[in-house]
């Protein structure tokens, strides 16, 4: 076995084991109920997810292995931007839905009647 092949196999093995440990840690964290606060649980899971993404990019996509191609860095930054948009957008939508679910039915009817009178 050549040295470079052994090195690549070692990198893939390290990446696989690290990704597996992060996945099992997130699963056990949720299943065990060790963290009871929903906010802290979400924060820890987000940190584990970010670490998982870094492991995937570093060990399997080889984003950091070359210095020349700048497009890889741009795609990495775009991935993080899209991830933030999806997470923040999802939280915004879920909070809005939660707020709207706590409105009394009479308030909803009044709002709808006012909107119908305005012509919306």
Short characterization:
The chain has 120 residues and is mainly alpha-helical. It has helices at residues 3-32, 38-60, 70-101, 105-118. The protein folds into 2 domains: 1-65; 68-120, no CATH class.
Blueprint (SSEs and pairs):
Blueprint: H1 3-32, H2 38-60, H3 70-101, H4 105-118
Helix pairs in contact: 1-2
Structural features, described:
By secondary structure, the chain is mainly alpha-helical. It folds into two domains: 1-65; 68-120, no CATH class. Helices cover 82% and strands 0% of the residues. The chain contains four helices and no strands. It has helices at 3-32, 38-60, 70-101, 105-118. Helix 1 runs antiparallel to helix 2 (38-60). The longest helix has 32 residues, at 70-101.
Key descriptive features of the protein:
120 residues; 0% strand; 4 helices; mainly alpha
* Termini Cα gap: 72 Å
> Which series of helices and strands comes N to C?
HHHH
Number of strands: 0
Shape estimate: elongated
Output the number of helix runs: 4
Question: What amount of the residues lies in strands?
Answer: under 5%
Overall mean pLDDT score? 85
Domain count: 2
Instruction: Report the uncertain regions.
Output: none
> Structural class given helices, strands, pairing?
mainly alpha
User: How big is the Rg?
Assistant: 23 Å
The largest sheet, given as strand count, sense and whether it forms a barrel, is: none
What percent of residues adopt helix (DSSP H or I)? over 70%
